[in-house]
Specification:
The complex is a heterodimer.
Chain A lengths: L8 E5 L4 E6 L8 E7 L6 E6 L4 E2 L4 E4 L5 E6 L8 E11 L2 E4 L5 E6 L1
Parallel strand pairs in A: 1-10
Antiparallel strand pairs in A: 2-7, 3-4, 3-8, 5-6, 6-7, 8-9, 8-10
Chain B lengths: L3 E4 L2 E4 L5 E7 L6 E7 L5 E8 L5 E2 L8 E7 L2 E6 L8 E8 L6 E3 L3 E5 L1
Parallel strand pairs in B: 2-11
Antiparallel strand pairs in B: 1-3, 3-8, 4-5, 4-9, 5-6, 7-8, 9-10, 9-11
Chain lengths: 112, 115
Amino acid sequence: DAKTTQPNSMESNEEEPVHLPCNHSTISGTDYIHWYRQLPSQGPEYVIHGLTSNVNNRMASLAIAEDRKSSTLILHRATLRDAAVYYCILRAMNTGGFKTIFGAGTRLFVKA
Amino acid sequence: GAVVSQHPSRVICKSGTSVKIECRSLDFQATTMFWYRQFPKQSLMLMATSNEGSKATYEQGVEKDKFLINHASLTLSTLTVTSAHPEDSSFYICSASQGYGTEAFFGQGTRLTVV
């Protein structure tokens, strides 16, 4: 299974943009890049996903490198509610279907 | 966004008994559902993948006879922890997806405590 590498933690100030990096050098051509976040004692929440092109939605933007070996999740203005563990995941097709496997994630701290 | 309902949110059971956890996609049809478990301060560990009407595919090291998964319809999957032991105590989370290129939606999780 293709893996992702993320920093263990990052810190941001409230109201400032946050760039969360993710390396996925073994990504294959059909793997989707997904981002989820998780608050304590809750299930993960979908943030954004993409294949090759950059993506924007109401929560965030996803910037995908041209070679697809890395991506960056961009929160345009961090709020205290954005403090969570952010997971960058590759969704890969396997024999019999597809999987969504989580790595360690990045814990984002937001300072007021 | 789409809603996935997981029930119960918390359960305490005696050692040796079985516990069933339900996962429902409320406003979409989920062709594929995933079950995860999560220990404190750790990431989610994929246990199994289930497609509607098919047998679940279990990850290496997950006992299929202990963790029974049934995906009877496009909106319901259940995980039954059989003959539960204290080491099965964990946070169990389900996820549902409509297809390979789509996002996954997660349930609220079930905290299982086996005493």
